[in-house]
Amino acid sequence: MPKTRITHRSGHLTPANTTDWHGMPVEECFATLSTQATGLSNSEAQDRLATFGANRLPETHARSIWMRIFEQFNNVLIYVLIAAAMMAFLLDHLTDALVILAVVVINAVIGLIQEGKAEKALDSIKHMVDPSASAIRDGHRVSVDAETLVPGDIVSIEAGDRVPADLRLIRCSNLTIDDALLTGESMVVSKDPTEVEPTAALGDRRSMAFWGTFVASGQGLGIVVNTGASTELGKISSLINTIETLKTPLILQMDQFARQLTFVILLLSGLAFVFAWG
After folding, report:
1. What is the reported pTM?
2. What is residue 225's predicted lDDT score, i.e. its pLDDT?
3. Contact residues for 177 (Cβ-Cβ < 8 A; gap 6+)
4. Residue 143 CB-density burial (10 A; 0-12 exposed, 13-18 middle, 19+ buried)
5. 3-state SS of 95-147?
6. Closest CA to 241 of 131, 117, 146
7. pLDDT-flagged residues of the chain (< 50)
8. pLDDT of 4
């Protein structure tokens, strides 16, 4: 798998695209990220923050509640039902009109609930991110805003913490982490700084600690290798945010039937009008 070293271009850093940190020896990770055990200097961290951006989840583009409600009614079959309800009301068939309107409203409510599931998933992910982290800067351990972490930072984690970024572990002491957020496995995973096969599945990357996962026991020290949208958690967040509503074959057939039904109704209405006029 390709590895791209962080290099300087005219005094600025170029982001790395390495994706197999788990398969790299610790020494190579240090060299690739141009860092050391004493951590980055504050000035270097600021430079990298300007290059990589804040360590936060991608922004969501939530639609307004009114737009979501409108989309529930933006369907030919719904238009036909609303028109039928209006006709029933004008003909004094109040019960029929109320029943039809109830069907339309229930359909809209179900649609809103289903669409809200993705937004709730994004909110739950955001709650899994700790606001602060313990990092080593200029050789001293300090508490920093987790959003300011950058690739190359040295971060300490211990029992009860949420991992503040994707880390390549360099030292572990009885460290176990609950990776269920990413892998779905119910058992905690024992971590070890020894590199694993580059082709190892996400759940087998024992040399890594991933953003948002929970430290169950022990202590560890790791190099930040990915932040924000580049992390495994960030990728999941991006996927959820870009999910498009797909129409099933049944829905497509219903849409086609609605168009045909609308055409037939308009045709019959036109014939009835011509017959009555004549």
Report:
1. 0.67
2. 95
3. 163, 188, 189, 191, 209, 213, 214, 215, 216
4. exposed
5. HHHHHHHHHHHHHHHHHHHHHHHHHHHHHHHHCCCCCEEEEEECCEEEEEEHH
6. 117
7. 1-4, 8-15
8. 46
